[in-house]
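Tokens for chain A. Residues wanted.
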């Protein structure tokens, strides 16, 4: 399985494709699915600000559009502008959706370039699910 360091590297590379002229806050994400496949994405902004797409949802959308049906095992998130670039609330809900009952790992880079691991059930406790 791909290492956390390698996954973060893919997130970093994806952040270089960011379209973020309004915030100047590039973000990249790399999502590892149960199949072993990795999908990356960057944030894409719009002059109508509310239409902005986050890097995490871009990466997950690409996975789903590529017929990925397994669990989301882990997702690395990176911004050159901020250590520990935590996922926003909307992205936490998306991560929870595609974790499919697995406690997906969120891989973040610290100030000193070491890695921190969080779990979606901790970042989004008591999340909404349709039963
Ligand atoms: N952003 C992400 O890509 N992911 C997040 O989880 C939080 C925020 C982006 C959206 C926007 O383009 C920029 O960061 C500043 O909010």
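Reply:
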């Amino acid at each position: 399985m791909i290492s956390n360091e390698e996954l973060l590297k893919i997130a970093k590379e994806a952040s270089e494709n960011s379209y973020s002229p309004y915030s100047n806050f590039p973000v990249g994400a790399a999502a590892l699915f149960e199949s072993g496949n990795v999908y990356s994405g960057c944030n894409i902004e719009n002059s109508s600000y509310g239409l902005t797409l986050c890097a995490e949802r871009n990466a997950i959308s690409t996975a789903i559009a590529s017929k990925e049906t397994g669990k989301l095992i882990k997702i690395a998130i990176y911004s050159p502008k901020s250590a520990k670039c935590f996922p926003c609330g909307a992205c936490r809900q998306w991560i929870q959706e595609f974790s499919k009952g697995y406690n997906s790992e969120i891989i973040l880079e610290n100030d000193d370039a070491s890695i921190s691991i969080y779990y979606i059930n901790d970042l989004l406790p008591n999340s909404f699910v349709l039963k």
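The pocket of tetrahydrodeoxyuridine is lined by residues 20, 23, 25, 27, 43, 45, 52, 54-56, 87-88, 91 (CB under 6 Å). The first strand starts at residue 28 and ends at 33.
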